[in-house]
């Protein structure tokens, strides 16, 4: 049956009816809120390319998290912005490292809030690469034990989940083994499985002070043209016992999210990255786009593509809007 008997517009005539037949829904439970943690006290540094995003010292982070928890956002993701960096990962893996201290303080005050930690070395090493370096080479296998130690230090401090974002081969297996051997078998791993070498991470590199000092990340992050390889990376991480696989960035990779959703049976996360956030803000600040409508459309698109979980700097704003419905 076709027009005039069939009229798709019949179901679009009433707002309640539109809501009833909407195929995709967003909820605050979908969100993870990324936060940047730095040394010191009383620090709340705005990130110029990311409105409403700050680097927080631990005491100030607790104030921010009050709001995050009150909004019902289930999980935060902590990135370290340490004052001191080295070449070996000592600072990142020390027993009382910045992130371990942050996790302990946050879990003490907010036991019900889930705290995930970023496991990657770019913010902690002087050259800004995600792994150890020999000459100009980012060396894979030597980096794995450092990442594993980092993950264990976070889990021991009480982290509810760890998320390796470095893109070294074999790191999920190395981290899983270390967690299991060191008494943390219940700590899940959210693996940045299909992480592309993307220009959309630009603002993050200011926020996390982790831009590479030489070369780029193309020898470890994925080439932008490779959907099959993205699926392969996701399946490798599943085989290495990742609990959740992630696709990053999100909006330029909706096809990848869709494919990974089809090919795996575990939850899929997507990272709505700093550049995606900055882009909408910049246009909104020019009165060229409506901030909140574009935000909700973006998040809905990521969900519709197949993501179960969305890491987004918009989490607080979106949660506020969802509560108002
Ligand atoms: C570092 C890391 C990056 C992001 C998350 N972890 C930057 C990069 O790989 O250069 C990007 C997040 C964002 O842009 O919001 N391993």
Task: Give a quick rundown of the structure.
This protein has 325 residues and is an alpha/beta fold. The protein is built from twelve helices and twelve strands. β6 (133-134) and β7 (137-138) form a beta hairpin.
**Backbone CA Rg:** 20 Å
Total discrete domains: 1
Please outline the major beta sheet. 10 strands, mixed
**Fraction of residues in H or I helices:** 25-40%
Shape: globular
Low-pLDDT sequence parts = none
Q: If you had to describe this structure to a student in words, what would you say it looks like?
A:
- By secondary structure, this protein is an alpha/beta fold.
- It has one domain: Alpha-Beta Barrel (TIM Barrel), CATH 3.20.20.
- The protein contains 12 helices and 12 strands.
- The strands form 2 sheets. Strands 1, 2, 3, 4, 5, 8, 9, 10, 11 and 12 form a 10-stranded mixed beta sheet that branches.
- Strand 6 and strand 7 (137-138) form a beta hairpin.
- The longest helix has 15 residues, at 143-157.
- It is globular and about 70 Å long.
- The mean pLDDT is 97.
- Ligand PBG binds at residues 118, 120, 122, 130, 165-166, 201, 204-205, 217, 273-274.
What labels would you give this structure?
325 residues, alpha/beta, TIM Barrel, two-stranded antiparallel sheet, 12 helices, 17% strand, globular, binds ligand PBG
């Amino acid at each position: 049956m076709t027009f005039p008997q069939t009229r798709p517009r019949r179901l679009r005539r009433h707002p309640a009816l539109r809501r009833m037949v909407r195929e995709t829904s967003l909820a605050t439970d979908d969100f993870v809120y990324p936060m940047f943690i730095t040394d010191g006290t009383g620090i709340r540094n705005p990130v110029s390319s990311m409105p409403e995003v700050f680097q927080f010292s631990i005491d100030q982070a607790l104030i921010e998290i009050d709001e995050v928890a009150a909004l019902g956002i289930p999980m935060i993701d902590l990135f370290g912005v340490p004052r001191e960096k080295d070449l070996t990962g000592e600072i990142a893996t020390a027993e009382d490292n910045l992130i371990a201290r942050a996790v302990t303080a946050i879990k003490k005050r907010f036991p019900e809030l889930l705290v995930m930690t970023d496991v990657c070395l770019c913010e902690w090493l002087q050259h800004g690469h995600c792994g150890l370096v020999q000459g100009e080479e980012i060396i894979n296998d030597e980096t794995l034990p450092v990442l594993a130690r980092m993950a264990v230090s976070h889990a021991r401090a009480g982290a509810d989940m760890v998320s390796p974002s470095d893109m070294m081969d074999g790191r999920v297996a190395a981290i899983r083994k270390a967690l299991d051997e060191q008494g943390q078998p219940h700590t899940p791993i959210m693996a940045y499985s299909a992480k592309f070498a993307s220009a959309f991470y630009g603002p993050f590199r200011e926020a996390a002070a982790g831009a590479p000092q030489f070369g780029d990340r193309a020898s470890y992050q994925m080439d932008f043209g490779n959907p099959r390889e993205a699926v392969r990376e996701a399946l490798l991480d599943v085989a290495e016992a990742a609990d959740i696989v992630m696709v990053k960035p999100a909006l330029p990779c909706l096809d990848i999210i869709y494919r990974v959703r089809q090919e795996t049976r575990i939850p899929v996360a997507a990272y709505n990255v700093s550049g995606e956030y900055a882009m909408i803000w910049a246009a909104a600040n020019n009165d060229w786009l409506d901030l909140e409508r574009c935000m909700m459309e973006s998040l809905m698109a990521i969900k519709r593509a197949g993501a179960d979980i969305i890491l987004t700097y918009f989490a607080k704003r979106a949660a506020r809007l969802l509560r108002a419905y």
